[in-house]
Amino acid sequence: LKVVGRAEAYESVVLKARVDGQVAAVLFTEGQHVKQGDVLIRLDPNDFAARLQQAEATVARDEALIAKTRSDTARYTALKEKNFVSEEKVNDIRTNEAAATANLRASKAAVEVARLQLSYATIRAPITGIVGARLVFPGSAVKANDVALAVVNRVRPLLVSFAVPERYLPQIRAVRQDGGLKVDITEPADASRHFEGTVRFIDNTVDAST
Q1: Contact 75, 90 (CB under 8 A)
Q2: Strand partners, 97
Q3: CA angle, corner 54, sides to 21 and 72, nearest 5?
Q4: Least C-beta-crowded within 10 Å: which of 20, 29, 77, 158?
Q5: pLDDT tens readout for residues 138-156
């Protein structure tokens, strides 16, 4: 059965910013082969770094406050044992300590959020493949999940899809059940070049246009 096929990337990822910012540097060249984790684009990190420092300062403040409330709790508990203060006063001090503990947990969570936002200023290749055209340039303002920054396609292995007439579907299914269905792929410009492949799956949707 001879049909026309279409090559497709094995994986294709459109990169978008996860935070609002300004492009500081584009570190790839068009058509470059990149590895997973390679830095492709950097956003200006100054704003995110300042937020992280502010969140860390809040944590330091809350840690000092909780140290004081724990000291107060221990002191007033000792005074209560000697009947120098009331039980109500001790309960108030313990409530203050619990509130300080909750504030510290919230402050630490804010630090993690700020650290994540700072890491989002560095945009890395999520897969190994070929990066396409430069879609943004240094100085460009970008918004979270808005414009595409770059496209990375994984082409090894390469997928090829075929639109096959419906009348051949029973035969194709029968051969696949018998142990695999091979395909022989030739390039349009050079019929002497052959590539062997294996049918991975039959799509679950009928293409009405074919």
Answers
A1: no
A2: none
A3: 155
A4: 29
A5: 999 999 999 999 999 999 9
